[in-house]
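Exam revision sheet. Question 4 asks you to relate a sequence to its structure. Input first:
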Amino acid sequence: MESTYHQNTRSSDHLDVENTVLSIQQGEIEQYRVIIEQYQKQMYVYCYYLLEQTEDAQDAVQDIFVKAYQHLDNYKQTVSFSAWMYRIAYNHCMNLNKKRYRDIRLLQVFKNTYQTIIYPRRSSIEEGLESLLSLLSFKERHLLLLRAVEEYSFEEIGHVMNITPANARKKYERIRKKLVQKNEEGGYLHEQSLKTTR
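Answer key, structure tokens:
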């Protein structure tokens, strides 16, 4: 029931955003503030955990919104606007981070951030999951973040990461199998906990 509610809410939000984008494309540029208000917080969190610096993340968010506005006429509803924004953010942060790129513990930090708000106490399952996630590469955690946290479709993930939906699905299934295998070797989580990562 909760899943259906979440899907309906997301569909409604998606429709509202698409209508706002369309109005901006038709000349109502003042509506762009709605887009900024909608995505500013999540873009900042995303950039912060890629760049690891508060000022860099703040500057990046400003640049991303400028780039998105400049290219807004190129946006087509072949994918969600959210996925389109994340692709701009991803490419921008990767360009900024190219010289000092390292294997950032992206999903783990994201998870810790939301745990601080939602789950004040850490359980053995949460700690085991973090240990498992630390075994993944940056790109693997990035894909898992989009699928498990943002609940993106494989088509949306493919758009963000510039790969085909089929390739995104294959990589995701490979990640799940890797987590199961590592868990069997290290005993981080009960098998049932991993089954919820779909």
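Marking note for examiners. The mean pLDDT is 76.
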